[in-house]
UniProtKB/TrEMBL annotation:
SUPFAM superfamilies: NAD(P)-binding Rossmann-fold domains (SSF51735)
Pathway in which the depicted protein is active: Lipid metabolism; fatty acid biosynthesis
Gene3D superfamilies: NAD(P)-binding Rossmann-like Domain
Catalytic activity: a (3R)-hydroxyacyl-[ACP] + NADP(+) = a 3-oxoacyl-[ACP] + NADPH + H(+)
Keywords in alphabetical order: Fatty acid biosynthesis, Fatty acid metabolism, Lipid biosynthesis, Lipid metabolism, NADP, Oxidoreductase
Signal peptide: none
Protein name listed in UniProt: 3-oxoacyl-[acyl-carrier-protein] reductase
Binding site for NADP(+): 12-15, 89, 154-158, 187
Length: 246
């Protein structure tokens, strides 16, 4: 198994891509920490993993709150004594065109998608530096690469995550820590389910593979980057888009 004996912490792991990644990591031998803002979703993912006879614990956390993030890391270390992998997957949308977007919605998305990634990565990096190794994986998006109508805030945060990923790869490589990002395209998740059906159909038609992605498609990308198979991969952005270009 590719992650045998590893400890992996995944934020936003209550549903969608985060849950699929947690389950995939558990299947590959990792002891998984499920972190999410919503307690019921945490419990659901933990139970799915335990039903497979794999090991997991759940932690409710708001990634915008530094104290809660520090507590999350401490609870992980209390349970497993180490932290090998963190997947900074937690994210939100609050769409609106430039002239209609509210300051509240702009700030809210920045707080979760950008500062939340910073909070979690910084806390995890301090542990990994002491260990002498670790993997930090960040969720960006095809929107961060190409932009998207009505998503000024989301595009800005996902582009910012790419910048942080490349910066941290340069800073932490000598400490034995790899840092990479995954850029999903349109994936069938609770987040995309809010989009109009005609928009989803349009995205499906634009994709060379003529389908939308599944959470498992992205989970497989995270698995590769988390594993020793990617031991010489750092500072990269792996697109999982089905070839779509917005």
């Amino acid at each position: 198994m590719k992650l045998e004996g590893k400890v992996a912490l995944i934020t936003g792991a209550g549903r969608g891509i985060g849950a699929a990644t947690a389950i995939k990591f558990a299947q590959e031998g990792a002891r998984v920490v499920i972190a999410s803002l919503f307690e019921n979703e945490v419990e659901e993912t933990v139970n799915k993993i335990k039903d497979m006879s794999n090991e997991a614990i759940g932690i409710t956390v708001d990634v915008t709150d530094r104290q809660q993030v520090e507590t999350m890391i401490r609870k992980t270390l209390d349970a497993y004594r180490r932290l090998d992998i963190i997947v900074n997957n937690a994210g939100i949308t609050a769409d609106g065109t430039l002239v209609k977007m509210t300051e509240e919605n702009f700030d809210k998305v920045v707080d979760v998608n950008l500062k939340g990634v910073y909070n979690c990565a910084q806390a995890a990096a301090r542990v990994m530096i002491e260990q002498g190794n670790g993997v930090i994986l960040n969720a960006t998006s095809v929107v961060g690469l190409y932009g998207n109508y009505g998503q000024t805030n989301y595009a800005a945060t996902k582009w910012g995550v790419i910048g942080m990923t490349k910066t941290w790869a340069k800073e932490l490589g000598k400490k034995g820590i790899r840092v990479n990002a995954v850029a999903p395209g349109f994936i069938l998740t609770p987040m995309t389910e809010k989009m109009p059906e005609k928009v989803l159909n349009m995205m499906r038609d634009k994709a060379p593979m003529k389908r939308l992605g599944l959470p498992e498609d992205v989970a497989n990308a995270y698995l590769y980057l988390a594993s020793d198979e990617a031991s010489f991969v750092t500072g990269s952005v792996l697109e999982v888009t089905g070839g779509i270009v917005l």
